[in-house]
Specification:
By secondary structure, this protein is of the alpha/beta class. The chain has 2 domains: 211 residues, DHBP synthase, CATH 3.90.870; 76 residues, no CATH class. Helices cover 26% and strands 16% of the residues. The strands form 2 sheets. It has a 10-stranded mixed sheet, with helices on both faces. It is globular. Bound molecules: threonylcarbamoyladenylate and magnesium ion. Its EC number is 2.7.7.87. One of its GO terms (biological process) is tRNA processing. This is Threonylcarbamoyl-AMP synthase. Keywords: ATP-binding, Cytoplasm, Nucleotide-binding, Nucleotidyltransferase, Transferase, tRNA processing. It catalyses: L-threonine + hydrogencarbonate + ATP = L-threonylcarbamoyladenylate + diphosphate + H2O.
Length: 321
């Protein structure tokens, strides 16, 4: 792939991180690595900076953003931290878990970032570069995945450059993302903890820590509560077919475990390895010599739940361009 020459990728050295912090304070966009996927960051207290995220991604403004902090203490002036939140924070932060909490009346977070909701989604990433960038900016940082809205999420700096190009001021390169799927989104703003998006922390681990079953998206037949849960998402250019055991000769076959396939998510069937490889392999198989990407069945437990969630959206009917 050729990149436009205005794209600015830099290795995440201390000098580049300091520059990123200064750009963010100045209201500019910076892409940076987290343990899940690359994020497209902006100062979450600056309406114009947040508006620039929606613009760069082509993202509908009713879909709220996650606010990233470098220290749990930074939460207190943004949201009401409930007892349940404190318990899961102690267990899972830093890490791939986002909490939806009630907005404080005097919260400095842009209303655009939270799409006008009375809640804010917050997370503390388990990645030294991400935390250093947030700390260097001295601001809470709104950061969706650094891709055009609806497209496959980036797990390498090059993916960000391919998807957003010169729309980002600076892309910090911190190598491949360890987890590879986005954070789990847990809503703690209501009466019962509710899973809004499966992700890098498994539902099993959360339910064990909370000592109770989570309300799942499928428990309700009405519209999903997380406005970001649009039908078609994570979509490569080619059509995607799921639960395929007999691929057609002209299809790329994305496999799992010991099998004959075009690319393998994890030859040993390890679901964490599969999650880490998912988005990069969807991109790699998205080539004109194939008619479609056929995907082998993926077990629906552990990180398999997040993988299947992303694959279902990648296979969902698309809006006409
Ligand atoms: O791993 C991740 O979470 C990555 C990295 C960059 O941190 N970020 C990410 O952001 O995946 P994004 O914008 O692609 O997804 C945010 C999700 C969306 O489904 C959105 O609707 C939901 O979180 N969300 C954000 N604020 C919310 C709120 N106040 N209430 C309910 N859902 C919310
Ligand atoms: Mg995203």
């Amino acid at each position: 792939t050729t990149l436009p020459d205005t794209v600015h990728i830099e290795t995440a050295t201390p000098a580049a991180i300091a520059q990123a912090g200064a750009l963010l304070r100045d209201g500019r966009l910076v892409a940076f690595p987290t343990e899940t996927v690359y994020g497209l960051g902006a100062d979450a207290t600056n309406d114009r900076a947040v508006a620039a995220i929606f613009q760069a991604k082509g993202r509908p403004s009713f879909n709220p953003l996650i606010v990233h902090v470098a220290d749990p203490a930074d939460l207190e002036r943004l949201v009401h931290v409930t007892d349940t939140a404190r318990a899961v924070i102690a267990r899972f932060w830093p890490g791939p878990l986002t909490l939806v909490l009630p907005r404080r009346a005097n919260s400095p977070i842009s209303l655009l970032a939270s799409a006008g909701l009375d809640t804010i989604a917050v997370r503390l990433p388990d990645h030294a570069v991400a935390r250093a960038v947030i700390a260097a900016s001295g601001r809470p940082i709104a950061a969706p995945s650094a891709n055009r809205s609806g497209a496959v999420s980036p797990t390498l700096a090059e993916h960000v450059a391919e998807s957003l190009g010169a729309r980002v001021g600076l892309i910090l390169d911190g190598g491949p993302c360890r987890v590879g799927v986005e954070s789990t989104v847990l809503d703690l703003s209501g009466d019962e903890p509710a899973l809004l998006r499966p992700g890098g922390v498994s539902v099993e681990a959360l339910e064990e820590a909370l000592g109770r079953r989570l309300v799942r998206p499928t428990d309700h037949s009405d519209a999903p509560k997380s406005p970001g849960m649009l039908a078609s998402h994570y979509a490569p250019g080619l059509p995607v077919r799921l639960n395929v055991t007999q691929p057609a000769p002209d299809e790329a076959y994305l496999g799992l475990g010991a099998m004959d396939c075009t690319a393998n998510l994890s030859p040993t069937g390890d679901l964490e390895e599969a999650a880490a490889n998912l988005f990069a392999l969807l991109r790699a198989l998205d080539r004109p010599e194939f008619s479609a990407i056929a995907v082998a069945p993926i077990p629906d437990h552990g990180l398999g739940l997040a993988i299947n969630d992303r694959l279902k959206r990648a296979a969902a009917p698309r809006k006409p361009a």
